[in-house]
Amino acid sequence: MPGSGVQSWATRFDGLPWTRNDALVAVGAAVVDLIGFTLTSQVDLGYVPPAGCVVMVVSALPLLARRRAPVLTMAVVLLFGLALNLSVPVAQHFNATIVVALYTVVRTRRAAVAAPTALVVVAIPLVGLAPRPRLVDVVGGVASGAIVVVAAIVMNHWQRDIEANRRLLADRAVADERRRIARELHDIVAHHITTMQLMAGGARANLAHDPKVVHEALVDLESSGRMALREMRQLLDVLRAGEEPEEEPAAPQPGIGDLERVVSESCRAGLPTALDVRGEEHPLPPSVGLTVFRIVQEALTNARKHAGRAQASVRLTYEAGGVTVEVTDDGAGAGGGAGTTGTDAGSGWGAGDGAGARSGYGLVGMRERVVLHGGTLEAGPLDEGGFRVSARLPLKAGEHMLMTTDEGALR
Fold first, then answer.
1. Residue 61: partners with Cβ closer than 8 Å, 6 or more residues away
2. Quick count: other Cβ atoms within 10 Å of Cβ 226?
């Protein structure tokens, strides 16, 4: 059955209640059955009955509704087959239409429905064979029905295994990305809060004057810093529960200043990439800078993997209330419907989402990072070709001013 994310062959066709796949299957079954009926009639009767041809073609039309009403479709197909057997002296057994209808019933219905349906399907085509069905006809019908049923059951098991494995990989990717975020935030936030604590303690210790109000404010700032640091460590310990200890010390975390480096690396790797910075530059929180860096890094990695011979561009836009980063390429590797779009990072955008080369677990990691900052993320193929990843990360009220103040104080 087609996935809900496919937007071409598995969507409604011209406003009709069936898909293009359904129409193709019905037409294909009708053509195969008509060819078989024509050849059999010519050999057995010496001519081709026009009425039989009409019934053979019409009997395939119910396949258009096989997804919505598989059992009813099977019943109508069998009635047409019975009418053909009783009206035309040509033996008709398991034709393509019956095979498709039975396969659909076994794929979509439980054994309590599929088993009796299979028995009826084996028996009905034998009705009308004069003077009575031969042993070879019975054995052939049973064998044909068994093959269809086994094929449908195997396909069901295979599809369940694929779905379970996909969910497992998606869950594992999310868990790995959260642990990675936890490690990075521990280095960034803990350092920032520790600096705030030391600055407050130094200001209190070296206070030239001793106004009571200022003294109490600085004491509160120092106390708040200790509490925030302790609570942040507790939170990150929960996120990192069960994680294997790191054997190597963590390297300094990258940020906005490293975008030129990752762009240069992309160029050296064979993907010409341009960096465009717009707006009035202002300091960003380290966690926001790291998120921007990771989005650019992952998007360029995907472009190198899937875009083929292409060029890419990175656009970083500073805004009054946040920052926007956009990575696009003009490659031909995306393919229609290959992307996954989520205009709201908090709305079930991701996993699985999507069924294309670009909609893998790298985008899941981007989503996790954007959700952390309350931002929005869009990722998908462009109409003119290529692929686009765009994320907007807002800054909380006063965060911009706080970063500017901290930077000036540290100088």
1. 26, 30
2. 14
Q: Quickly count: other Cβ atoms within 10 Å of residue 369's Cβ.
A: 26
**Residue 139 DSSP class:** H
- Residues 109, 38: Cα–Cα separation, whole Å: 33
Main-chain dihedrals φ then ψ at residue 329, nearest 5 degrees = -140, 160
Structure tokens at 208: 């030239």
Chain centroid to CA 116: 37
In the block, residue with structure tokens 């561009």: 313
What tens digit of pLDDT does each residue of 165-215 get?
988 888 888 788 777 777 666 665 655 566 566 567 667 766 766 666 667
pLDDT digits over 279-323, tens only? 888 888 887 888 898 899 888 888 887 777 889 999 999 998 889
Q: What is the DSSP letter of 345?
A: T
- Residues in contact with 187: Cβ distance below 8 Å, sequence separation at least 6, in sequence order: 250, 253
Q: Can you tell me the distance from the alpha carbon of 272 to that of 312, in angstroms, rounded to the nearest whole number? A: 6
Angle at 365 between CA 360 and CA 369, to 5 degrees: 150
Mean pLDDT of all residues in 110-132: 77
Which tokens belong to 82?
Answer: 């019975």
Task: Kindly state the DSSP code that residue 129 receives in the 8-state scheme.
Answer: -
- Tokens in use for 262? 């990752």
Q: How far is CA 229 from CA 222, 234, 347, in A?
A: 11, 9, 30
**Burial profile 150-173: b = 16 or more Cβ within 10 angstroms, e = fewer:** eebeeeeeeeeeeeeeeeeebeeb
